[in-house]
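Components:
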Amino acid sequence: MPSPGRAAPPSRLSERAAVPAGPVRPGPGARALLTPAAVQVHAGFWHTRRQVNARTSIPQGPALLETAGNLSNLRIAAGLADGEFRGAYPFVDSDVYKWLEAASWQLAQPGSADDGRLADDVERIVSLIAEAQQPDGYLNTWFDLRKGGRCYQDLRWGHELYCAGHLIQAAVAHHRSTGHPELLAVAVKFADHIDSVFGPPGSGKPIDGVDGHPEIETALVELYRETGERRYLDLAGYFVDRFGHGLLGGEAYCQDRVPVREATDVEGHTVRQLYLLAAVTDLATETGDEELRAAAQRLWDAMTRTKTHITGGLGAHHDEEDFGDPYELPNERAYCETCAAIASVQWSWRMALLTAEARYSDLVERTLYNGFLAGVSLDGERWLYVNPLQVRDGHTDTGGDQSARRTRWFRCACCPPNVMRLLASLEHYLASSDDRGLQIHQYVTGSYAGEVRGAPVVVRSETDYPWQGTVTLTVEETPTDEPWTLSLRVPQWCTEYRLHCGDTVLDATDASITDGWLRLERTWSPGDRVVLELALEARLTVADPRVDAVRGCVAIERGPLVYCLEGVDHPGGGLDDIVLDTTQPLAAKHRPDLLGGVTTVVAAGRRRTIDDPGWWPYVNADGADPGHSDEPIELTAVPYYAWANRQDSSMRVWIPTL
Amino acid sequence: MPSPGRAAPPSRLSERAAVPAGPVRPGPGARALLTPAAVQVHAGFWHTRRQVNARTSIPQGPALLETAGNLSNLRIAAGLADGEFRGAYPFVDSDVYKWLEAASWQLAQPGSADDGRLADDVERIVSLIAEAQQPDGYLNTWFDLRKGGRCYQDLRWGHELYCAGHLIQAAVAHHRSTGHPELLAVAVKFADHIDSVFGPPGSGKPIDGVDGHPEIETALVELYRETGERRYLDLAGYFVDRFGHGLLGGEAYCQDRVPVREATDVEGHTVRQLYLLAAVTDLATETGDEELRAAAQRLWDAMTRTKTHITGGLGAHHDEEDFGDPYELPNERAYCETCAAIASVQWSWRMALLTAEARYSDLVERTLYNGFLAGVSLDGERWLYVNPLQVRDGHTDTGGDQSARRTRWFRCACCPPNVMRLLASLEHYLASSDDRGLQIHQYVTGSYAGEVRGAPVVVRSETDYPWQGTVTLTVEETPTDEPWTLSLRVPQWCTEYRLHCGDTVLDATDASITDGWLRLERTWSPGDRVVLELALEARLTVADPRVDAVRGCVAIERGPLVYCLEGVDHPGGGLDDIVLDTTQPLAAKHRPDLLGGVTTVVAAGRRRTIDDPGWWPYVNADGADPGHSDEPIELTAVPYYAWANRQDSSMRVWIPTL
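Structure:
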């Protein structure tokens, strides 16, 4: 779920090609609130990835959910079939809801609704969900079928409110995209049931509690935005503030160790932490709560400074899917769950809207192009649950959901429909507007449409980003009688750029550009053109020395892309003995034939053959260098997002220099 | 489980102060088989640790097993009490058996049997076990109490044969130490039951299968040694060879991916792999099977070259307690289960006896002094299940069995009684003899007694090892009419030494010393003295460059000890920003007041304060060095085995040099 903003009441489907996002209500303490702009992506990098999502990933969903048993569970709960609950986890309903959210956003894309099959699948599953709902509004097939309906008695592990949250998000997407009321009615009925059950001591409600896996909180804020019903916002605020008080046993895993208002670092289960923080930011946006805003800023800083992989990936431990300690950023055992990357994009985008600060969209960009996109294969049919930064030459894969090899579907299938919904709603995360103008956060070929003081503004964009750094923007609609500001984000990775706008030329030496935004305030005319040239040199990156795992290593980056080496491109010896020569220049080489068309980066290196070390691999540092012979080798790096799309192979992002 | 060798029938307890180990039967293809020598430890480093084991750890066992429910389960199974099975795992019986094995070995120590309490505890629990055994010989409280006695139907997870193995090992220890027949009778009856049930297709036995957790195999070899019954050896051989054929689903975790005769690398669950390999070596020893011998040698080499931490610790993954990939040796997430260190000692010692090669005892030494001994606190009351090589300054511990903080007892309490049994039987691993003489593998203050061509030889030893490198050996008993060889292991870490023996002076320049053994062949007289001086300089060690986790780091070692830094010794800033200056000398400083008396190593270093890196910790490698200010600091390293015995603190073994 995408973005704050209440939708205008839909009229005809075709008019909502880009889902219009209504105004955010600034709260009393809010500053600089931005509103999502309506964006269309017409061509280029993300268009290609979204086409695969629309044509392969999303359409295959219903069959995969059928095979895995998720839809069968709903039919049984609806009394339409007999049988046993199927699925390895209590939260399998959420897979259906996330797919439904993805498909609903997809139906809002130009042309998608013309394909009757997807709309039919959506309406068929919506009807099934409505039939499975109990008269009082409750809905969860695990508790219905396995637990005799003993609901809300295992909040720590049951995931009932988590599933409800995904149902609500799906309903908001479905209503906003199609205008159909049916699923929203299911969500409202369930939300009202939850609101009648949960509340603080003294409220007269029977349960004072929260769900072990946050998700309902941000969903309730979205439901508030969609319906205008304040109770949902209040309920979200109640839930957020009840974490950290021991209702779940006090574990960091469940975000229950410390109240978020007091927290100083992100901790515990990564996705749970991030979903909770997205809700914290939503609440700060909608209510103007300065304490929540400060907590969100503080925790975002702590996370990015010490717990974020270079890919934007989050989560250092397989065990408990935990954030890990500060600067604990392993490579081969990086967890970096695909869902965590998605949650990070959702949270950071909310922070960008709340604060108007560019760095939040810097992380969105980095995460989208790297940690997130690696989660799905180029053909849209295979997935990674975890996203390691290294796979060794001798890697023995034990399979399962956490495999380093792409998998068709998972026992815990949270990631695939999560990828689908983010790709299908990607345009929600690309631009914003406010009373002063339009802000372009991410560069695509398409159009950005916002509203400035009641007047529509539309800017067309053409770019071959991220392969090329030139972005050509043409004003298409504008009030011609009053000035507004076109703001362009200068990516954090970019140290050299030039902007042409009529007679204006700005570059990186311009002192006015200090906060990541290039701001062009003027009275615009249709046809005005702005050309932004971002220097896209391949570069070597080093980490803070406290990141122990990558000491003595560099990463290759170009533009927003993090690169990696794959064993398949380096036959004859694998990657474990490779050293990069930092004194030699890097060369970018576009390869339209490779991996759907990528720019590779070629570097000079050598392959080190170490003399037989005997049985013990640790030697006296005196006399130091273990004997070895070196052979020069050309290293070919490919974008990290495209790895693991050929044969099983070794891979590494961080390359030794010594 | 200690050492091959059938015990002489016991006569009086006091005569078996050091448990005599009978001759190993060399098989047809065996070469260089050694026999364990009888050793007594009188004083010094290991004596102190064993005193704590004898006076604190072992005596507290029964109360802890009572609290955890293990003994209650046996009483219920015996019909002596009512109640429910208690314990988190199906294999909790094995905790009792391992404690019983520890206590039994302890009873063989001089003076221990005089403490009637321990002997009473042992006999009381032995009787309880005998009463809990079913008439047909089967015994497992989990299956009795929880599974309605449906035995051998869940070999993958049930751990029935694993528990049986520990029962058999305990019975061998009990019989060998005390001469009492009761527990051995229980073990024999259970082993006969297993032998009647398990066998290859066509054998007429009902089940062709193996246990998901190896242990029964090496126990059956021990039972064969204790009873002379060949069926037990054959059954062990059958089990070993049935792994790797898919009987357990083909998973590496259960050692079922590939037959051990074909395996080229250690893999899967670390302790399972090591217990299996101990049995492989036992079988090679007893049967002369050259293929098993070759497999054991091949796998030991693979393990030590690429999958062993500098502490001797084994196991890279928390997830599935897995070995991990070659050169995947993380620090903060090192698993290095204490039980794996114990299993490694057991396996390597068997390899030393089988091959007479010194390197196996090199690894025994390294593991005993580091990866193993860190598993128990100096006071003998608290434990580590996993043994990380780094704990960060900002470490958030989630508690549980895998905590980086010492714990009183575990839900899965495999490690504590395993430590107890190894410490109580430590003398089994220290020396050997054969027809040519006596081999001293580990240096202690005490006496080494073997038999050379029928004649007893006894050598007394005095040393302050590992703090000092001088070992003074005095021949106490010897045939005076024929020569024999006294062999002294020169530790693999030692590059400079001098040996004085009468007129003979040998040092590291002597070309005859090529395989780790100093061999002194002569006709000895009582009172002959040999002085070995091992140079004990503190040193810096680097790893094979393929060990990514420690690139740009050094470890401090001195003698057999690996050192670490603890935050508690470096107030005012923790350890994450510390750099060691490799150009400055190291200084050893004995501190009798510290940690029970340790030699510390002092090094020069600096504390690096990094300029505020902003929100993103990855920077362009050009312009390189992130700004920082450095402050000189004296680094104090303590032996790794002694870490985590003061307040909770950060710790690191590998120290950055850049």
